[in-house]
Amino acid sequence: xxxxxxxxxxxxxxxxxxxxxxxxxxxxxxxxxxxxxxxxxxxxxxxxxxxxxxxxxxxxxxxxxxxxxxxxxxxxxxxxxxxxxxxxxxxxxxxxxxxxxxxxxxxxxxxxxxxxxxxxxxxxxxxxxxxxxxxxxxxxxxxxxxxxxxxxxxxxxxxxxxxxxxxxxxxxxxxxxxxxxxxxxxxxxxxxxxxxxxxxxxxxxxxxxxxxxxxxxxxxxxxxxxxxxxxxxxxxxxxxxxxxxxxxxxxxxxxxxxxxxxxxxxxxxxxxxxxxxxxxxxxxxxxxxxxxx
Length: 293
What we know:
mainly alpha; 11 helices; 74% helix; globular; Amino acid/amide ABC transporter membrane protein 1, HAAT family
C-alpha cells in the first residue's frame, strides 16, 4: 500500500534528516569534514541500549541521554584532534585525514570491546501498539521518531535565529577572524557546535536503533554515505535543505525497496549524490559563492 510506504519513508527520512543536520551544522560552522561523526551515531545507540538493559530507564530518558553522551564524545574528539588544526588554519584536507584515522581506530576499539554482533533492546522496552486507519498502520515508535525529529529541528532553529548563542554561531560560520574581533569566545562556541552536532547524530542513532531494533558498533558507517548525500542534495551548510533532502531520501529508499528490490535501495543514496553533483552541485538550496579579487 502506497500510503503505508510513504509513512515508513517519512519515519526513515526523519532520522536521516536528523543525522544530516548535525553533520551540516558541523561543516557549515566549523568548516571541517569530520569522519568521526558516524561514530557519534553509534555511540548514541549503544549508550541507549546499555541504559535500557542495565539501568532500566524509560524510552524518553534513553533517547535524551544517548544524545547527550554522543555530544560529549564529539566535544572530546574535536578538542583532541581538531583544535590544533583549526588554530593553525590547516584547512579541510588535514581534518579529513586525521578524522579518517581516528574513526577507524574508534570503530576497531568499540568492536573489540563490545563485539560486532547485532544487539537488541529488551523485548518489552518498545511499545508495539499502533494506530490503525483502514489499512494504514502507524506505530507509537514511528510517532515518537517523527515528533522527536521535528522537535529538535524546531529547537535548533530557535537556537540559531533567536538566541545570543545562535547569533555568535552564525557569526563564526561567516568568518572566524571577524568573530574574534567582535569579542566572541570562539573556543566556547566551537564546543557548543560540537556538542549540538554530536547530540543530533546520537539521537539519530537511538531512533534508528528503536525503529529497526538492531544495534552494533559499525552502524554509523552506512549512515555516513546517506549523511553526505543529504547535505549535498540539500545544499552544504543549509539546515532547511538537510531536512527536506533527508525526508526525500528516506521516502525514495522505502519506495525503491517496496516496488523494485530491497537490495536496490542501497544504491539510492549514491545515485542521488552523483546526480546532484552532475546537474546541481550547489544542491537544492545552496548558493554559488562569489569569488572576489
